[in-house]
Design goal:
Blueprint lengths: L10 H10 L2 H4 L11 H13 L2 H17 L2 H15 L7 H8 L18 H16 L1
Helix pairs in contact: 1-4, 3-4, 3-5, 4-5, 5-6
């Protein structure tokens, strides 16, 4: 059983529903679980301090969505860089994170794969050998 509270919230599973209703993030019962690393919590604190509540929620959730789509470590590194560099003076948003990480905000297209041709004559031969074996 994970944790002392016997639950585990993976932000990747709930991020889409929270983005549809960003107002739910602020009072979300398991909000503390939506900070995968300490730097995400620090980023949220800065956004919450400098932006109106709804905009702070939406900006943080979009940054969290980028972490879910790409590498969480890259987003965390970008947040660390911004927090160290600006220290709340120049506010940033999810577009800044995208520029720093190159993480796409939309899922990438699935490549088209060529289907191999199947040679069914080998199967037919196997079937005939098995039929002869059973008949004997």
């Amino acid at each position: 059983m994970p944790g002392a509270h016997h639950y585990q919230i993976n932000y990747r599973h709930v991020i889409d529903s929270l983005l549809r209703k960003p107002g739910g993030f602020r009072n979300y019962r398991y909000r503390a679980d939506l900070f995968p690393l300490e730097v995400f919590r620090q980023a949220w604190d800065v956004l919450n301090e400098h932006l109106p509540p709804r905009r702070a929620d939406l900006t943080y959730l979009r940054i969290l969505k980028q972490a879910a789509l790409g590498l969480e470590a890259e987003v965390a590194q970008a947040l660390s860089l911004l927090l160290d560099r600006d220290q709340g003076q120049n506010l940033w948003d999810e577009k800044t994170i995208t520029e720093l990480t190159g993480v796409m905000t939309a899922p990438q297209c699935v490549p088209v794969l060529a289907l191999p041709l199947v040679n069914l004559t080998l199967y037919d031969q196997l079937f005939l050998v098995e039929a002869e074996h059973v008949a004997a």
